[in-house]
Amino acid sequence: MSPAPAPIEQHTQARLILGTHRSALLRVTLRYCCEDPLAVRMVFPAEYAVDASDTDPYDPHGPHDPNDPFDTAPADPSAPDIEWVFARQLLSVGLDRAAGEGDVRIRPAYGMRTMVELRSPEGVALLQFARADLRRFLWRSHLAVPEGQELRHLDCDRALAQLLA
């Protein structure tokens, strides 16, 4: 059995929309693994995580305001990266028209941009990407596993074993 191909990774920037006239640049890693051919991943550094102390009204230092670029939470070097996993097909469709109904929604935006909305119990993050960056990543993933061929690369036994472990 041959070793699994290395994941496809692409580092890019996203603009986190904080308000009408406020935003912040984030570094994002886009990742695609042939062993999980139906999914793509967006990985954010741990420093962008919402910490429990951010919303603790009893915190003696006061709550961290993620919308305030001058209020930076101390980074925990041992904290894991934040990873959002969603369907590769959702990314593909969202580049050309609004797609998604759940935690991840993607739609084209003005000026060759694409908006990605991530929803969690902690709130909503609205990210703006250069559409060309997302298309390049998607193209590279399709070179590894062509669209429509995903099930040929899916190891159902391994996936079931991981699910039951």
Describe the 3D structure:
It is a single chain. Strands 4-3-2-1-7-6-5 form a 7-stranded antiparallel β-sheet. The protein has 165 residues and is an alpha+beta fold. The protein has helices at 88-94, 131-144, 150-153, 156-164, and strands at residues 8-19, 22-32, 39-44, 82-87, 104-109, 113-120, 123-130. The chain contains 4 helices and 7 strands. The radius of gyration is 18 Å and the shape is globular. Mean pLDDT is 81; it is low at 52-63.
In short, what is this structure?
21% of the residues lie in helices and 35% in strands. The protein is built from four helices and seven strands. A seven-stranded antiparallel β-sheet has the order 4-3-2-1-7-6-5.
Keywords, separated by commas or semicolons:
single chain; 165 residues; alpha+beta; 4 helices; 7 strands; 21% helix; globular
Question: How many helical stretches?
Answer: 4
Order of strands, main sheet, comes to: 4-3-2-1-7-6-5
The coarse overall form would be: globular
Summing up helix and strand content along with how strands pair, one would put the structural category as alpha+beta
Give the fraction of residues assigned to helices. 10-25%
Radius of gyration: 18 Å
The total beta strand count reads: 7
How far apart are the first and last residues' alpha carbons, in Å? 23 Å
Mean pLDDT: 81
The proportion of strand residues reads 25-35%
Helix and strand pattern: EEEEHEEEHHH
| Low-confidence segments | 52-63
Largest sheet: 7 strands, antiparallel
